[in-house]
C-alpha cells in the first residue's frame, strides 16, 4: 500500500507543475460556464414550469462541474498509460514488482486531483462572488455539505475505475481511439456531463440514475445544490459504493485476462 501512496504523491506533484495549462483551462471553463448558464436561462424564461430542476440548483451544478471538470470528465486521457498500451512500453510496466492495476489506478487518481486543485479555487471564488441567480450558492445545510464531500470522493473512485476499465479493454485492440471514443462519450452523456440527468424524460432518467455513470458527477453536484435531499443522499452514496466496488473488480479481472494475452507492438 505504501508503494501506491508514493506513486500517488509523485504523480500529484507532477500534475501541479503545469500552471500555464491550468490558467488556459480556467479561462476556457469560465467561458463555458457563462455560456451554459445564460443559454439555460433563456430556456427557463421561455417556459419556467417545464424544468424539474430549480435554476439556482442548475447554476450551482454548472459552476461545480466547471471547477471539478478534471476530477469527473471521462474524456480526459492519461497519455502515459495509453502510450504504454499502444507502443509497447507496457512490457516495462509488467516487470515491476507491484500490481499494474493498482499502479495505474493511483496514477489516474493523482493526475485528476492535481489538475483539479490547480483550477478549482479561482472558479469557485468568482462563482461565489457572482450575484444571484447566476452565482454559486452554499449547500442548503450541513448534511448536504457532508454528503457532497463523501460523494465527491466516491465519484473520483468510480470515474477512475471506469476509465481504467476502458484502458484494460484497450489492451485487446490494435487502436485506442474507436473503443475509447464510444465508451467515454457514452459515459459523459449518461453521467450528466452534457445535460443534467434531471432533464432526461421519465423512464430514461430512472434508468440512467441507476447506471454507474450517474455515480460519477451527477450525484455529488445535485447533492450540493439540494436537488437530492433527505434519505436519497444516503441511497446515492450507497449506490456509488456499489459501483466503485463493481467497476474496480470488473476492471481488475479484465486487465488480468488481457495481460495473459498481451501483444507488445513496437518497442
Structural class assignment: mainly alpha
Helicity level: over 70%
Give the overall shape. globular
Give the strand tally.
Answer: 0
- Assess the beta-strand content as a share of residues: under 5%
Count of the separate structural domains: 1
- Biggest sheet, in brief? none
| Order of secondary-structure elements | HHHHHHHHHHHH
Radius of gyration, CA atoms, in whole angstroms: 19 Å
Mean of residue pLDDT values: 84
Number of helices: 12
Termini separation: 30 Å
Report the uncertain regions. none
In a nutshell, what does this entry contain?
With 267 residues, this protein is mainly α. Helix content is 71%, strand content 0%.
Q: Which descriptors would you attach to this protein?
A:
12 helices; 267 residues; globular; mainly alpha; single chain; 0% strand
Describe this structure in words.
The mean pLDDT is 84. This protein has helices at 2-15, 19-46, 55-67, 69-72, 79-87, 90-94, 100-129, 142-170, 177-190, 202-208, 218-225, 231-259. It contains twelve helices and no strands. It is 71% helix and 0% strand.
Amino acid at each position: 500500500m505504501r508503494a501506491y501512496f508514493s506513486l500517488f504523491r509523485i504523480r500529484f506533484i507532477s500534475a501541479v507543475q503545469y500552471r500555464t495549462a491550468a490558467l488556459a483551462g480556467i479561462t476556457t471553463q469560465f467561458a463555458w460556464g457563462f455560456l451554459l448558464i445564460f443559454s439555460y436561462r433563456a430556456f427557463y424564461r421561455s417556459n419556467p414550469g417545464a424544468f424539474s430542476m430549480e435554476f439556482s440548483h442548475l447554476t450551482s451544478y454548472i459552476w461545480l462541474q466547471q471547477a471539478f471538470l478534471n476530477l469527473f470528465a471521462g474524456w480526459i486521457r492519461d497519455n502515459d498509460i495509453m502510450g504504454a498500451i499502444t507502443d509497447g512500453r507496457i512490457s516495462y510496466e509488467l516487470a515491476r514488482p507491484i500490481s499494474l492495476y493498482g499502479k495505474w489506478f493511483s496514477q489516474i487518481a493523482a493526475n485528476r486531483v492535481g489538475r483539479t486543485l490547480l483550477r478549482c479555487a479561482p472558479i469557485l471564488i468568482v462563482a461565489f462572488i457572482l450575484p444571484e441567480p447566476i452565482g454559486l450558492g452554499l449547500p442548503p445545510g450541513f448534511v448536504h455539505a457532508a454528503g457532497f464531500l463523501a460523494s465527491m470522493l466516491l465519484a473520483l473512485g468510480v470515474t477512475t475505475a471506469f476509465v481504467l476499465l476502458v484502458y484494460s479493454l484497450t489492451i485487446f485492440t490494435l487502436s485506442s481511439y474507436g473503443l475509447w471514443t464510444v465508451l467515454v462519450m457514452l459515459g459523459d452523456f449518461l453521467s450528466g456531463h452534457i445535460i443534467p440527468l434531471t432533464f432526461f424524460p421519465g423512464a430514461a432518467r430512472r434508468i440512467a440514475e441507476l447506471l454507474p455513470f450517474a455515480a460519477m458527477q451527477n450525484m455529488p453536484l445535485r447533492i450540493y445544490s439540494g436537488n437530492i435531499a433527505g434519505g436519497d443522499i444516503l441511497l446515492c452514496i450507497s449506490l456509488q459504493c456499489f459501483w466503485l466496488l463493481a467497476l474496480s473488480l470488473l476492471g481488475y479481472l479484465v486487465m488480468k485476462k488481457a495481460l495473459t494475452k498481451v501483444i507488445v507492438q513496437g518497442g
